[in-house]
Amino acid sequence: LTTLHLAPHLLPHTYNIIHDFKTGLQYIVSEQTSNCSVQPITAEYGDAVQPIKAEYGDAVTAHGKSVRLKLAKELLDVSPDKFVYSGKRYFRGILADVWVAEKSGKSPDDQYSTTEIFFSDSDYNIQVGEVNELKSVPLGMTTYQAESHTSSYFKSETVSHYFQFSTASPSLNVFDISNCLSSQDRLFLKLTFQASYGKLVQFGLPAIQDSIRAAIANIAGVSPLRVIDIFLSSSSQSAGVDVWFVLLQRPEVSESLKESTNLELEPNLPDAFQNLVRTFDTHRPQIRLELGEDKSIMVSGLGGSLDIIREAIHPASRSRSFLLLRATYTTGSMAGLGFAMAVLGLSLGILLGFLLWKQRLGLPKYVEWCHTPLLRSHMSNLADINNPNVEQELTPAYPGPPHSYQNLGARY
Q1: Partner of 51 for a Cys bridge, out of 12, 46, 126, 199, CB 3.0 to 4.6 A?
Q2: How many angstroms separate the CA atoms of 328 and 187, rounded?
Q3: Which residues 6+ apart lie within 8 Å of 44 measured at CB?
Q4: Burial of 176 by CB count in 10 Å (0-12 exposed, 13-18 middle, 19+ buried)?
């Protein structure tokens, strides 16, 4: 598996390049759009006079046709026995042991390169996974290149960093080619193992899923990439474990490209299914599950338990909505949606605040009274203030200041 990150100014996409050396096929899958292309693995072949370089440098052609994974000395382009110890140096802030090797051509004018590999110091414990700790873990590699052995300087320097190093094989879940095939080119299957769930998962659920995938692929005679979506559940019909999985069709390539692959050696979907039927139709078929590091367990299958399941009830269909959401909405689109919702909420808040402020400082509203007085009393003879055209003598509410005082004697 090779993960290729394109530059941001090109496309914000990440592509996974999967090489299946069993069939000689190369799958290029986009993580964002799930688009996929299938073609033969491009490897280095030819001769010393006219070599043809590979598009991705992890493969090499053997015996003129078959393609295999490069060995360590082929990946480094330097034989491991040429490395010598060069002392200690800090690499990525970690004290490391440095091993150096050089490569030069037959003549002094050939290109010259020096390779340094950094391993963590023995006093350091590097945590790998959740509980494992390793010593002398590879941290990275630096390659210096010069025009010739007599050059006074290196023209280029390439630094590779190794993160999340693990000695274990990668999970087969990362080699997902299901998007390279039509949704009709697959079978949803289920079989039963006569073993307890605790016995199967004692070495970890991912490990047992990968071992079951490899065992089913071996029985069907197909590449493990064509067996996907392994699910385990307690059997409802026996004291065992139901194994749910999906079997994919053989990928198709053009006739002109098929000659450079081993695709014809694999059965198609009906033939692969018949291989499984012949094995699981026997009484208590014995299946060996390889768990790595010389560990394996034998489990018994339930005869006649292999069955084709409707997609609607298969556990793989339940996770399809999440996978579709993941493939449709990227991180950038979700961030843009969140920003748009924040702007919309802020705009609505400003509008509501403005309306409340305007209502508080606006002009008072007058209520129009009807012509008929609401109250009838001794003051009902007052004129209707809402109808100024009605002629009626108005008695002032305040008669004014009192008259001037008269002579007290005249009054009394």
Answers
A1: 46
A2: 25
A3: 51, 52, 53, 54, 57, 59, 60, 61
A4: buried
Query: What b/e sequence results for 243-273 when a residue is b if at least 16 CB atoms lie within 10 Å of its CB, and e otherwise?
Result: bbbbbbbbbebeeeeeebbbbeebbebeebb
Q: Which tokens belong to 226?
A: 């064509």
Cβ distance 135 to 122 under 8 Å? Answer: yes
Beta strands 132-134 and 126-128: pairing type?
A: antiparallel
Q: Which two tokens stand for residue 283?
A: 């009484």
CA distance 74 to 357: 76
CA distance 263 to 259: 9
Q: What angle do CA 9, 15, 20 make, to 5 degrees?
A: 155
Question: With contact defined as beta carbons under 8 Å apart, do 292 and 207 qualify?
Answer: yes
Q: What predicted TM-score, i.e. pTM, was given to this entire model?
A: 0.61
Please report which helix (H) or strand (E) contains residue 94, including its range.
strand 94-104
Which is it for the CA torsion 231, 233, 238, 240, positive or negative? positive
DSSP-based three-state secondary structure for 155: coil
Mean pLDDT in order along the chain per 10 residues (412 residues): 53 75 83 81 48 53 63 75 91 91 80 90 72 78 87 86 74 84 90 89 87 93 92 82 92 73 81 93 88 83 89 77 44 76 89 80 51 48 48 52 52 46
Residue reference for tokens 């899958």: 29
Find tokens 């961030």 and name the residue: 335
Distance CA 140, CA 92 (A): 9
* Residue 161: strand pairing partners: 140
